[in-house]
Amino acid sequence: MAISRPADPAKAYEGIKKMKKDIKLLDYLAVRRSVPAFQMCEPGPDKAEIESILTLAVRVPDHGKLAPWRFIVYRGDERATIGEELLKMALEKNPDLSEEMIKVERTRFTRAPVVIGVVSTAAPHVKIPEWEQVMSAGAVCLNLLMAANAHGYVSNWLTEWFAFDERAYPLLGVKPGEKVAGFIHIGSTEFPIVERPRPALEDVVSWRGGND
Ligand SMILES: Cc1cc2nc3c(=O)[nH]c(=O)nc-3n(C[C@H](O)[C@H](O)[C@H](O)COP(=O)(O)O)c2cc1C
């Protein structure tokens, strides 16, 4: 079945924001897009909706049924507290931060109403390669983006410097030995959702066999 681009993309992207009402899966996949966290606003999902989103998000391929990932949900005032602490760490690294960057650091976790950390707990295993466990955490991240969309919210998968700076891990609740797969930002937006370039299939697909 050929999937065609929507005749009116702007209308189709609006469908993402209203997905829980009327968008079909094929139509959704044809236009699925992230919305940058800085373009997000209230409302975000409440606790019951977050639990519903996470219940969908964990339905990913997972070799060995190890569930080699976990979530940390950042909500409310805690987001501003984390931003202040990240700013302190950023200033320790570079005391000459511009006013603009001070604001960026301070608001890392307050751009979106809800931020969900996806933590990879991948570890050596007698049968399941660690690489497969790591990929399962990536699958969780994409599923989380889509489950948030399915609840009528926009979403964005970010990592940023503190995902790779272990000094930030105690602040963020990440335990020693764990890795951050992503911080999934979830909220609403007043901005139009626009297309971004996608790779041409011939650049990323090799065909082997087949006669048609
Ligand atoms: C693992 C991962 C980490 C990312 N981290 C960042 C980031 O730190 N900052 C950023 O601007 N974009 C980051 N991105 C890209 C954003 O998610 C981007 O908005 C998104 O890929 C847009 O594509 P989409 O609309 O097809 O989802 C990351 C993507 C992935 C897969």
Question: What is the strand and helix layout of this fold?
Answer:
Layout: H1 9-17, H2 19-22, H3 25-31, E1 40-41, H4 47-57, E2 69-74, H5 78-93, H6 99-106, E3 114-120, H7 130-150, E4 154-158, H8 169-172, E5 179-189, H9 201-204
Antiparallel strand pairs: 1-5, 2-3, 3-5, 4-5
Helix pairs in contact: 4-7, 5-6
Flavin mononucleotide (FMN) is lined by residues 33-34, 156-160, 182, 196.
Provide structural commentary.
The structure is a single chain. This protein has 9 helices and 5 strands. By secondary structure, the protein is α+β, with helices and mostly antiparallel strands. The protein has a domain of 125 residues: NADH Oxidase, CATH 3.40.109. Strands 1, 2, 3, 4 and 5 form a 5-stranded antiparallel beta sheet that branches. Helix 4 packs across helix 7 and helix 5 crosses helix 6. It is globular. The mean pLDDT is 93. Flavin mononucleotide binds next to strand 4.
